[in-house]
Amino acid sequence: MRVHISISNEPSSYEEVQRFLRSDETGAIALFEGVVRNDALKEGGIVQHLFYEAHIPMVHAETQRLLEELQTHFPIQAIYFHHLIGKVAVGSTSIWLGIAAKHRLEAFEAQTWFLNQFKKCIPIWKKEMGTSSENWVI
Q: For 32, 34, 94, 102, which has the most beta carbons within 10 A of its beta carbon?
């Protein structure tokens, strides 16, 4: 399985994700792009950007554990995961998750499983930032 996992303050791109995932053996690519939206804040106002913090060594260790488990459940060919940290503006992509597999069902199921597990156990924290208030999202 080909693996790209990155946590960075530098963005990735659709083209980069596609280049990594495509191969002659791949029949399906499931691609998730998480985009920052301008939600209403609890204290009033709207989100102008998000701020992500991460414990990088723990993120890599836990992600490796998830990858090992992923391989026991799903016959995928490649995974591309990129999560931005730091300030991410409304309209910008904060997460890319691409899964390549021979068939669509494998790709979709692996993608949903990985993203759900990642959100549950990986130490990345998100703060919503507005003009007059901010809020850590739990």
A: 94
